[in-house]
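Hi V.,

You were right to ask for the full record rather than a summary. Here it is.
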Amino acid sequence: MDKNTAFDGFPFILGWELTLACNLRCGHCGSTAGTTRQHELTTKEALALCDQFPQMLVQEVDFTGGEPLLRQDWPLLAKRLHDYDITVKMVTNGMALNDEAISLMKETGVAGVGVSIDGLEVTHDSVRGRKGLFRSLMSSIEKTVKFGLPLTVITSVHALNLPELPEMMRQFLAVGVRNWRLQPIFPLGRARCGNLRMTENDFLDFGTFVTTWEPRARAQGMVMRTGDAYGYYTELDNSDPPWYGCPAGLFACGITSDGKVKGCLSMPDELIEGDLRQHDFWDIWFHPDSFAYNRRFSSVSLGSFCASCDKADQCRGGCITMSFASTGQFHNDPLCFSGIRTRTASTQRLAASQSK
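Predicted structure:
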């Protein structure tokens, strides 16, 4: 197709699922990771894909999985991207975060590593299905910090670890963690069922934790950030800059290990925009039909949870993955602080009127 297109944004940030293989079977895994996808990209194909990123103005690539450290050629991919002055970061479950892996990250120019910890020892080991994992990770984190590789602990917040967050922060600070990202779990994959999903009240408690403890973390040298599905538009929302809608397909997207493109790696695989084995990245990104749910957004796109909100045009219905996973619709995130409060107040008024 012609490179003069109506849409003029670029995918500055990419999430790249290097493999769907994983050495754990976590209870909250939205992608149900475990074994490789059929026909994952070869090393030659993956390196050729890296070569397309500069013309797409890609600024950052985040290696994820599955477990990205299980893909043996990840150092070659990291080095290729580093040679293009593209920032490379990695998200790992930490099982293979040993001295060799840490050294390779430094050598190949990996700018930072995110390690997933989803509760205190008993909770984390239970959710991840591996006894002793929490203690091993805390030791690996301490080594990584001492090695000088920038590290972020990433926590998927769920019903079981919500009351543990203050003590988790204390233990993270004790081993030198200075960046902590908290992300609500999505009701996808293995998290569709079980006891991890949060209620509306849990979401409000999560917001109260962040507003109460973020200043305390900052005072001790820790930066506490929240994920895109956290918000919106109350005093509980600490987003900086404020939320202006989901970036999927606007300036960010995801690439699966078999070369498919979607707006965000958290999205279900049914939301695929194209296949990099069949088309160049440029042609998929700039195709007039790609990412229509975001690029063609209008107020009529809003679902019932968001249609009457006075912030709808700015918010655009919240996180698309949370919206789609929870309601089967885009632009209809039901787990929004403002929306929860509005519905709670309405229920209370109705109960009060009926009791008279």
